[in-house]
């Protein structure tokens, strides 16, 4: 609750309401260009390059415009008239008409009637013109599309297809599909601005423009007296509210009953919605904004507490005060302008929502009962525990907490899994420092051309190829010895020198690096603990530290160790699709006994150090470089033109879209670009985040000239 926000993936540039007002068509004119990132960014030449796709004519229609005006039907048309692609986009399985033969060049994409997302169809020119869906692109929880930041891919009948069409074609199809998804997402200015909701009692998903507020028509319905609302209006309101998790969890019939009675309210910051100790009259769904739950009566502590208990869009509250004769257990105050859908006490009870609340409480109780930690607890004590927290759901890719050690909550994982990530500052690691200089020195020594004329055994050649091209740990000490000698007596930092002047080497992937023996480094340097590093090479990377599963507890780590012995590094909690219960630490510690404390101590795990994580990253990075180069050497490219993006020149050595840092282009004049990283500022400065680092290296073909033509198997 404290930190929920988008983490790694956020929508690209906003499309302002003026640019695309509701009921408008957003037209992408012929020749309009969309930027996107290459699917395989570490290919040698176009490493991380931004690629340009030209859409012949792409038109997206969005807005409220169906006859009922309550729903948004959207149609996406996508035409690609050039090339000989055999892919065809089609609406849905239900639409197959054997006599409808379209030219094989046409591609169109629409949302399928029968459910989730897009389907790509293959045009089958066989005598019987049947068509089969090739792949379905879907988002499991389509109403929260924006929070996924990705599109899932389902591959029905994939194996049979691989056998029939060949691995290459199969991979190409997947790449094409991913590219289309990226174009789709970026062309729309990011899905954050749109919602695709799967309505009740309607097959077709609704694709609508979204500005965050409850749509005016829905407000209009919710302001009417319940008896004046038509069935159509109730259905429409129900559809709009599918984006609220808390609402969608209810059975369909109950959703419709609620849509009949709920009313709309909007309150400003600091407005107290429910007051602790008072009799409750209403139950609230949050449509927009954030509220805080506090222990004090006037809610002022929410504005002072660094980690208040927050509830966001899709959450609900106020159920406890409506149960039997109970009073409000906490105060709820608006942290910003907030929109609510309110259900009054009589309707709450008439619709048996109290049963739903009881069911949820029992679910929490049963979960705690099963945990080994609470085996010795009495039922009464466990019920106290149940009352401290609520069940929350997080979708795949959603941020749960930016720093769970520092957070005020203990988190219990009820279902699903989540990952613990650590953002490491590569520049602060000695392994990375050594690695970067190793890479920049890669081409210092005897020119490769020497070897081209001498006869080498395959073994020698392979060793040479490894040393020259790939940063293997085994050889690193040699380089280090060499570096230390050159460092000089005062231990001054290595003065990297980079030169782009032509030399006798064969064509290389990056600039020809001469390091210390060449000209002074042209790029600026920064001082690190271990010496100087090119400023551009300093970056951060998210590393997975641990995966949490059902029954795991987070936030209790090292709780009983003295402050000085604790690991204070921030760790991030990222959902892979979870249900969890969060309980405030101080309340939890009030309840636990010695036996529970001991159990907690025993289950404590140590997380790897940043240095270990950095080494792991470098290992994986080296492997990825090697794997991609080798693949390029072995896989024969087909001369197929379909979906070949236009290459553009790289401008920067860091590509924030692919999160790739390309040291090959280090000393080229580049515009500084440092996207601000989201880690807590007290721990780390803003830095660019990378997923991979590419370094200067020889082309495999030049190291092994007899394999000059890609596709020749070793
Ligand atoms: N720990 C908590 N986490 C989230 N919400 C809470 C928590 N405690 C209470 N609430 C909500 O705050 C509401 C205050 O009014 P109620 O007691 O009616 O119902 C309460 C719950 O819906």
From TrEMBL:
Residues 246-348 form the Cyclic nucleotide-binding domain. It is found in: Cytoplasm, Cytosol. Residues 1-100 are annotated as: Disordered. One of its GO terms (molecular function) is cAMP binding. PANTHER family: CYCLIC NUCLEOTIDE-BINDING DOMAIN CONTAINING PROTEIN (PTHR23011), CYCLIC NUCLEOTIDE-BINDING DOMAIN-CONTAINING PROTEIN 2 (PTHR23011:SF43). Keywords: cAMP, cAMP-binding, Cytoplasm, Nucleotide-binding. One of its GO terms (cellular component) is cytosol. Essential for male fertility. Plays an important role in spermatogenesis and regulates sperm motility by controlling the development of the flagellar bending of sperm. Residues 49-78, 87-98 have a biased composition (Acidic residues). InterPro entries: cNMP-bd_CS (IPR018488), cNMP-bd_dom (IPR000595), cNMP-bd_dom_sf (IPR018490), RmlC-like_jellyroll (IPR014710). GO terms for biological process: spermatogenesis. PROSITE patterns: CNMP_BINDING_1 (PS00888), CNMP_BINDING_3 (PS50042). CDD domains: CAP_ED. This is Cyclic nucleotide-binding domain-containing protein 2. It comes from the Eukaryota. It holds the Pfam family cNMP_binding.
